[in-house]
Amino acid sequence: MRLSDAALGIVLLGAAAAIAWTARGFPLVPGQAFGPSLFPLLIAAGFAACGAGLIVREARAGLRGPWIAAGPLLGEARARFDALLLLGAIGFYLAAAPRLGFVPTAAVMLLALVRRFGASWWLAVATAVLGPLALHLLFAEWLRVPLPLGLIASIRY
Length: 157
Hints:
- There is one protein chain.
- This protein is mostly helical.
- The chain has helices at 5-23, 38-61, 72-75, 77-100, 102-116, 121-142, and strands at residues 2-3, 68-69.
- It is 69% helix and 3% strand.
- Helix 1 runs antiparallel to helix 2 (38-61), helix 4 (77-100) packs antiparallel against helix 5 and helix 5 packs antiparallel against helix 6.
- The chain is flat and about 60 Å long.
- The chain starts with a strand and ends in a 15-residue tail after the last helix.
């Protein structure tokens, strides 16, 4: 499916509103100048700015065609498989992360996705090893965002 810039802008504005609405209820962290809602609100602001920019650009150029058109998902088996793989990776994370933990689950996901989308084996393995560790360090250790520990709970210091 192909969305026009205006349609994608509306989707981004809706996502921004949903993210901001959800983040407003996050609890404050004592002793910190910012709480866990900071990054979701920054992401929401970015989505809103991008969405508004897409709508303005489409309006200036004039609406030239359908807002939604059939794309490669309807005609190409590889594109359908790739879309299902992404949805499956999200489902895998939701099912496996509480038991396995964030780091191993994200590593498996990244290895499968990065390799599927054309990276070499060494780049896929490097991304699968370093990416989840860097994200865990950033979010769990520095920003104190709770990520599922799973298998690494017993290894923690």
